Amino acid sequence: MKILIKNGRVIDPASDFDQRADVAIADGTVVALGAVPADFRADRVLEAADLVVAPGLVDLAARLGEPGHEHEGMLECELAAAAAGGVTSLVCPPDTDPVLDEPGLVEMLRSRAERRSASRVFPLGALTRGLAGEAITEMTALAESGCV
Q1: Which among 85, 96, 134, 141 would be 20 to 30 A from 125, CA to CA?
Q2: According to the model, what pLDDT value does residue 71 have?
C-alpha cells in the first residue's frame, strides 16, 4: 500500500529534521520526504495540516496494569491506546504489583506485550527486591530477561 501524508509538521529527532513537508510511504517504508516523486501514486492520501508526523513517541513512565492484573485483560487495551496515540515505545517502571524484581515477571510482561501490539515495552528492573531498599536484585538476570 502507498500512502501520502501531506503538509504535516515532520519531526525526526534522529536526523534533526523539523519542518512542514510531505511524506511518501510504500509498503511501510518512507520512500520520500519533502519532494514526492512525480510517479508516486498513493492508494491513500492523508491531509496533516496542523498535525505532527513523527516516527514514534516514547512514554518514559507507562503505568501498565501488568504484571499483577492479567485477569483484567488491561494490557491489550493499554497498548492499543498507546499505539492509537502514536506511542511506539513504552518504558514500564518497576513499581508494579508485583514489583518487577524477578526475571520471570519481566519475561512474562515482554512476551504478552510482543504478542499483542506493535508498540514495544521496555521494562525497568527494580534495583532492590520489592523496592524495599534492602537486598539488591539479580540485575544481570533482569537485564538478560529484557530489562533496560
Answers
A1: 85
A2: 58
The Cβ of residue 4 has, within 10 Å, a number of other Cβ atoms equal to 20
Position with higher pLDDT, 28 vs 40: 40
CA-CA distance, 31 to 42, in Å (whole number)? Answer: 12
C-alpha angle 92-14-50 in degrees, rounded to nearest 5: 85
Average pLDDT, the chain: 91
| Domains in the chain with CATH codes | 2-53 (2.30.40.10), 57-145 (no CATH)
Q: What is the value of pTM for the model shown?
A: 0.74
Nearest to 82 by CA among 56, 108, 106, 105: 56
